Amino acid sequence: MARVVAIGLDSVDIGLVERLIGEGQLPNLAALRARAARATLSIPTEYRSEAPWTEFGAGRSSESNRYWSTVIFDPETYGCPTIGAAAFVPFYALGAEKTVIALDIPHVRPHADVHGLQVIGWSVHDPEFPRCSVPSGLLRDIETTAGQQRATAVEFSGSWNQPRYIARYAQAVIDGARRRGAAVRLLLERCPEWDFLLVGISDAHQTGHQMWHGVDDRSPLRTASTAPIARESLLAIHRAIDASIGDILAAAGGAIVVVFSVKGMESASAEVVAWLLIPELLHRLRFGQPFVPSPARAGSIPGPLVPRPETRPGGPARQALAGSQPLRFRFVRRTIARATQSVARRGRLARRDREVAERMARLPLHEPVDALRLSSPIGSDAAWEPVGWYQPHWPRMRAFVIPSFSDVHLRINLAGRERDGLVAGGDYEAACDEVERELGACRDARTGQPVFVKISRMRSADPFAADGPAADIIAQCGGSVDVIDHPTVGRLGPFPYFRTGSHSVRGFAWVAGEGVRPGEVGDFPALDLPPTLLELLEARPPHALDGEVIRGLVPKLVAV
Prior knowledge:
Blueprint (H helix, E strand, L loop, with lengths): L3 E6 L4 H9 L4 H8 L2 E6 L9 H7 L3 H4 L29 E9 L10 E7 L11 E3 L3 H8 L5 H4 L8 H28 L5 E6 L3 H7 L15 H26 L3 E6 L2 E4 L3 H17 L17 E2 L18 E2 L5 H11 L3 H17 L36 E4 L5 E5 L15 H13 L2 E2 L7 E6 L15 E5 L6 E3 L3 E3 L8 E4 L1 E7 L6 E7 L3 H9 L23
Helix pairs in contact: 7-9, 8-9
């Protein structure tokens, strides 16, 4: 019976991987690709940033899980608390039938029916669950043997326009990637009878958010002064990921190998729109005056803006947006100097890194895991996005934008559902029509094209359902937009890009092993991956899964 090694690459984009393989920069992935059956995976557009790892872990859709995001909306308080990972039975909770080692899978909780080892939060971006391990003490043993991850202390300490931050963050991520092989070897030694090794690698997630402008020629920030160091850093991180994959496969020995990503990365397409432009539009439509002033510049639209430090998400001064500086390639020295000054004080930053690492070392590892039963909500209000600046005004608006991580998520202020609802239940569809008309009137001021290419109604079947998605409407942008024109309000923006990369719906899965026929097998929903992994394991699912087996990835199911 074959063992299976599955390596999940969080937010690794297939287009960049293929390009780097062609350039000879990823030898381990190149060798794997040459002998692998290869499938293209896709995820639903809606909640594409929030839901894919939960859907993968459960093997079930958001609708089946009744869970769409780590951020919910409380209609009684108009708050948006974070709730952490959903409580579901992982598809790999196979009991005594199979022995599983699971390391750093995002958005999952430990489960009693996973027979083997489970580690959450050693080196994962945004795990959405407290750092812990099963058995107790295993995480501390990994940190003693392989070391701690410095990237956690650095990832939110700067922004894409700060060269020293990019360099420091990249080095911390690369250092962590080098340690992963030792962590996996320790787990394999502790559990030599393993059947399924499932490893998550998050190195490309947050680094893609901050450094994508260095590798994407379509990025509006491709001429930023930090683009060269972003490119160098992100490529080095992908080389480190490739080396980490080589370390894992060498440690695991002979097995069926699956390398996959359930979502990709692309130029930031909607975050300025979702976090600031549409919230500002709805505020001006309702109250007739600006909440955030647009940059007061006459003449043509300036180029993309460099955010000042205080305008980063969570920054205290919305007025500082008016002082954001134009991004010009010829201003390289000045831009670097300004960005460097904002993160100078290097001794203090280095000391902060050490202090964070020391605090991490002192964190309790939550023994036993049974103590980790989380109540909802577990986190603070999601006001770290600029959209949170508008929160006090929501009760007096017919519709408003709530926090998201990709598209524009809108909520109708519905009477009988929201505490101060203004829209009668019978007028719900008309209110949605009104919002869609205003969104449809928005034009990208740089191109003249419509801002939105897809608008979805998420709760039409029952807007009062207590367990439905937070958003009534989700509007998807067609490209990177930082300034819009509206026939009533006029021009809004330009406002600075807070990140340079956001998540795409592109994913992939490569399977290599004895009997696997190399080549492309087609396009499939990402929900088909969990049942395919179980088929490779020759294991029965612990519950009904929403996907189907990708036959071309399973040797015994491929027609000869």
